[in-house]
Amino acid sequence: MRRLIPGKSIYLREAQMEDAEELVRLRNQERCVGGLSATSPEIHRQRDWLAAYASRSAAGTERYYMICSPGDHRVLGAFRILDAVDGKFRLGSWVVDAGAPLNTAVQTVLLAYDEMFVQGTSRECRFEVQQGNESLLRFHPKLGAQIEREDEQEVFFVTTRADYLAARPRYQRWLPAEQTGAVPP
What we know:
- The chain is an alpha+beta fold.
- It has a single domain (4-179), classed as Gcn5-related N-acetyltransferase (GNAT) (Aminopeptidase).
- Helix content is 31%, strand content 28%.
- The chain contains 5 helices and 8 strands, in the order ββααβββαβαββα.
- A hairpin with a 4-residue loop joins strand 1 and strand 2.
- The longest helix is centred in the first third of the chain and has 17 residues, at 43-59.
């Protein structure tokens, strides 16, 4: 996984120790409480978490990305690609700032899928969406995600490389020009 992923009107960069305060702010927005695992408001705890994360990043099994605006490098959100092992990965800890442009979420998922399915060799992605998050429950199937199961709190999705590649042409306008070309088999 690359540490910097350029997009059309956003880019993803690996989270650094300096991002601890911004991560605490993002993850503790009132609209996010309940949607993410609890995050302490103490900045030093986030720094400790980021220090421990560094070994998972070095192993190539996880990447924590800051979603940024290219013009002013403003942080628009954050998310993780995790458990990247044996051709599978998960998406998690996804938060987009309330003031981010509307297409930020769409571009983030496209860049993550392109990183893992097109640039990489992954075959499958799994993730959960909380029950009641209607916009995400409608969006992910449009990108090829299938509901695997659900419980009272969450809907569990799986997306395969083939499913994403079949849906990808409808979303190419959100990908940078160099990523809209032919996809290797």
